[in-house]
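Dear U.,

For the methods section draft, I wanted the exact inputs and outputs in one place so we can describe them consistently. I've listed the two proteins in the order they'll appear in the manuscript figures. Please don't edit the C-alpha cell lines directly; just add comments below if something needs changing.

First protein:
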Amino acid sequence: MARSMTTQELARKVDDARQAPFILDVRSPEQYERWQIEGRVKPETVNVPYWTAIEEDEETKTLIPDDRDVVVVCAKGDSSDLVVDVLGLSRMVNLDGGMDAWATTLVPHRLRDDEGVFMIQLDRIAKACLSYAIGERGAEMAVVDPAATIETYMDLSREMDAPITHVFDTHLHADHVSLAVELARRTGATYHIAEGDAEGADMDYEPLRDGEVFHLGNVELIVRSVATPGHTPGSTSIEVDGRFLLTGDAVFVTGIGRPDLGGETEPWARDLFHTIHDRLAGLDHELEVCPAHYTSRGESGEDGTLRRKLGDLLVNDPVVSIADEEEFVSFVVSHLGTPPGEYSEIRRINMGWDNPSEDRVRELEVGRNECALTG
C-alpha cells in the first residue's frame, strides 16, 4: 500500500498557498470536469486517466513537479493507490478514500470556545456548505444545517460532553441531502424547521416560530424571524448569544441565496428584498453573519472562518446593498442561470418523500453548491 494523506490533512494544505500540493487526478475526464480539489487556493492539477498513468508512466512523470508534495486522487482511493506504487516518486502520496471521502469531509473552525460556551463552524469544503454546533460543555448542544456525515456531529457531542438536544434546518435544502431528521432520530433530539418549508413533508418536526428562544446551558438561540423568505418561503435566521446570526441561504458573506429553486423567481426575489431591508436591517449591525454556504474559500478570513458583520454586508455588498426594490428584482432575475436538475430531486428527499440509495445520494451531491447569486 502506498503512502497516503487524509482528506483533513489535504483540506488544511489547500487553504495555504505555501503548502498547497500538486494534484494528479486519475479519474476519467468526465468525472474530473464535474469537480476538482480546491480550497482558498486552487492547487495546480493535471488530469491523467488511471490506465494512461499506468501504461504511460514515464510520460506521466514528466508532467509532475519534483519541488513539492504530489497527491494522487481517484474516486475511492484504490486506483490512485496503485498509481502511486507504479510511479514510485518520493514526494507522492495517495488521497485516502479519494473524492468520495473528500465529498463528506467536514473541517471544524471555532467561532467561539470560552467559558464553556462553544460555537463551531463545520466546513464541508467539497461543496462549500457550512453547518454549526452550538452549546455549552457539560450541558447540551444544538446542530444547525447538518450534512455529509452524522458521525462528525456525534463525535463532537462526545468531545464537548454535550448531548445533542436540538437539530435545526434553516431552510429546505436543495443542493445537498440534509442529515437533520436522521441526526435527531439517532440522538433523541427535536428537529426544527419552518412550516413554510415543511408543509406536507413526510417527517416529524417541530415548526419554528418567530421569536422562539432555546436555552442550551448559558447559550440562547433566538429565532429572529421565521419570515426571512426569498431563497425559500420558510427560510429562517437564528441569532446566537447576541453575537452571531445564522442566515442559512438568505444572505451570504458575499451575495444572496438564489430565489428560483422553487419555481417562483420574481415573487421570491421580492420576498428576499424585504427580508434584507425590512427584517435583517433592523437587527444589531454588529452581529456576525454566518451563512449555510459560500462561493469560494477565498471569502474566508485568516482563521479559516466564514463570517461578516451584518452592517458591513448591508452597506457594502453589491447585491445586498441594492436599495431599490425594482432594481434588486431586475438584477436577480437577469443574473440567474439554470438551477441544476438534481436540485428538485434533493428537495423531494429532504421532504421525506423519496428514500434513495447511498450511491444515488453520492451522485446527486457531486460538485459544489449553486445556491448563491453574487454581484
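Second protein (the one for the lower panel):
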Amino acid sequence: MSAPIFAPADYLDLRESDHPALFHGAIQAWDILSQIGYYLEKRLVPANLGRVIGQPVIGDQVYIGEETVIEPGAYIKGPAWIGPRCQIRHGAYIRENVIIGAGSVIGNSTEIKNSFLCNGCQIPHFNYVGDSILGAKVHLAAGVIVSNLKLNGDFITLRVGDQVLTTGLRKFGALIGDGAEIGCNAVLNPGSIIGRGSLVYPGVAWRGILPARSIAKNATEVHDRTT
C-alpha cells in the first residue's frame, strides 16, 4: 500500500505567496521545513523597505517589504523574509528561518521559528508557531500554541487509517490549510494537519488530521462545516 500524500496544493494556494519556488519538488508539504534555511541563504538580500518605529532589534539577514511596519520592542533575529504590508507588533519574536507573506500580522508575545506563512496570516496575540506551514489567511486566536516537539523527542508520525506515516522530522508543528481558524488557547500537537477552511474550537488540544471544511469541537468530536 502506497504512503498517503499530503501535497502542498491540497492545502495551500501558492499564488498567495511570493515563494512558490520553495515547494518545487516537495512531495509532502512538510518537506520544505528542512529547506527554508537553505532557500533564504541563497535568495535573501537584506533590505528594509518598510517603516521602523522606535528601536526594534533587527538582525543582519532580514528582508522587510514595502509598507511593512515594525513596532518598538519587536525582535527579528533572522534569517527572515517579511513581505509587504505586514505588521510586526511590539513584543513579537521572529527567530531563524522564517518567511512571512504579504499583509500578515505578527503580534505581541508571539514567537515564530523555522516556519512558512502565506499571505494574510493573523498571529496577533500570545502565540507560538514552531516548524510549521500556514496557508493564506490562517488565523490563530489569542493563546494558540503550535507545538513542534514530542516530549520524548521521537520522530513525528501521522496515523492515516491503519497506516503510520513517518515524517522524518523530529520537529514539525502543523500544516494548516488556507482560511483555517484556530480558537483561543487551542493547542495543535506535533504533526497536526488542518484542512482548508476548518475550525478548531477554543481550548481544544488537537492531534491528528482534520479534514477540509470541518469543525473540531473537541479532540474526538468533528463535524462537517457544510452541513
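Candidate sentences for the figure legend, describing the second protein: The first strand starts at residue 47 and ends at 48. Helices lie at 36-43.

Thanks,
Y.
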